[in-house]
Amino acid sequence: MLEVFANPAFQVWSLTTSINNRPFIPGLIGQLGLFSPRFLATTMTWVETRGHRLALVPERARGAPPPPDVHDRRAAVAFGIPHFPIRSTVMADSVQNVRAFGSENELEAVQSVVDEHEASLGERLDLTQEYLRLGAVKGVIVTEADRETGAPMTVVDTFDQFHVARQPVIEWPIIGAGAAGMDAFWSGQLTGLIMSLGRLMADSISGGMYQRIHGIAGSVAYDAFAMHPEARAPYLATESGPLTRGMLAPAGANRLSFRDLTIDEYRGRDGNILFVEPDEIHFFPVGVPGLFLELYAPADYMDAVNRLALMRYSKMWPLDWDKGVEIEAQMNVLPICTAPRTLFTVKVTQAPASAGPGGGNGGAEAAAARRRA
């Protein structure tokens, strides 16, 4: 009965075309369109970095020889592309149950069973790819984690790879709506925090140019930011504001924008693996060419050797005694940030309501003075 699998429709390239043509949505990070794909013919690649910096031209006496130009230092960093295979089994009985014996639509019936298994494998790869992309915007890509505890077992640390220091974790003391009379102080404080983050990020980018800042936040951090008086003001000022914000946000996500900064609440986990800590926001610049790359390597199949990689692969192999077939799907991919110093982690802390710009009760005293005036 399983001779149908000898049909060209079930060969490696046909199955691969099928799984790559499936419309899959890897998740919030995938929807942002950050990553530029690079399809390789090898399982390892070198990423060359070149520091862009300007140097002042020193004054020289007229007729004196000019100083030599300052050339940027170049460095090449090697990356191995990790391998992510997954398998499923189609038993003969499962095919038998979806068609009548001797029918003429045998191929179509078998194809529907294979499609179901491929879709299931594709969803697992989608989740894995989203987790890898999220690691890239954090600077540390976890390629293997303990299924029970979620603890990282194998990682690609781009800070170590590029020999750069991590940016220190920034603490943002944000209070909800603030105490009575404190709205003015907290409105100004939030603006200052964002402007400071923007300057730090610009200093870490070659040329200091980016379009905007995007953040991926946990639930506690997102709520603290969303309930801040200045963040709420634009939406409370117009009747259609809250509706507009909901329409602009991706499906299933909360999103808010403030100045040139956008924050999405991230709601992702896999068992004990929590994708984003509740009190953290991971910020990264958007609109910097070549900042985020997605490196693809060929599959470990003979017919894929030294050929340019595809995003996904799928292949089948018969079981003993023709009891069924195994379907394997795989991807060989590594998303990276080529300038990890542009990545910032903010931890939202609960600030005391009495703390003002100068410490102590300065904020409350200033608010009281404004009310008296």
Question: Can you describe this structure?
Answer:
It is built from ten helices and 17 strands. It has 373 residues and is α+β, with helices and mostly antiparallel strands. 30% of the residues lie in helices and 27% in strands. Mean pLDDT is 75; it is low at 52-56, 177-187, 243-252 and 355-373. A hairpin with a 2-residue loop joins β11 (269-270) and β12 (273-274). The longest helix is centred in the N-terminal third of the chain and has 33 residues, at 106-138. It has a six-stranded mixed β-sheet. Strands 1, 4, 14, 15 and 16 form a five-stranded mixed β-sheet that branches. A two-stranded antiparallel ribbon has the order 2-3. The protein folds into two domains: 1-51 and 75-164 and 292-335, putative capsid protein of prophage domain like (putative capsid protein of prophage fold), CATH 3.15.30; 168-203 and 206-287 and 343-373, 2-Layer Sandwich (capsid protein of prophage fold), CATH 3.30.1930. It starts with 11 loop residues before the first helix and ends with a helix.
**CATH level-four homologous superfamily name of the largest domain:** putative capsid protein of prophage domain like
How does CATH name the architecture of the largest domain?
Answer: Super Roll
Provide the low-confidence segments as ranges: 52-56, 177-187, 243-252, 355-373
* Mean pLDDT across all amino acids: 75
Strand arrangement in the largest pleated sheet: 7-17-13-8-10-9
Q: Report the strand count.
A: 17
> Can you count the helices?
10
SSE topology:
Layout: H1 12-21, H2 28-31, E1 36-39, E2 44-50, E3 74-80, E4 83-91, H3 92-96, H4 106-138, E5 140-145, E6 152-157, H5 158-161, E7 170-173, H6 183-203, E8 212-217, H7 219-226, H8 229-237, H9 241-248, E9 255-258, E10 261-265, E11 269-270, E12 273-274, E13 280-286, E14 292-296, E15 313-318, E16 324-337, E17 344-349, H10 362-372
Parallel strand pairs: 1-14, 7-17, 8-10
Antiparallel strand pairs: 2-3, 4-16, 5-6, 8-13, 9-10, 11-12, 13-17, 14-16, 15-16
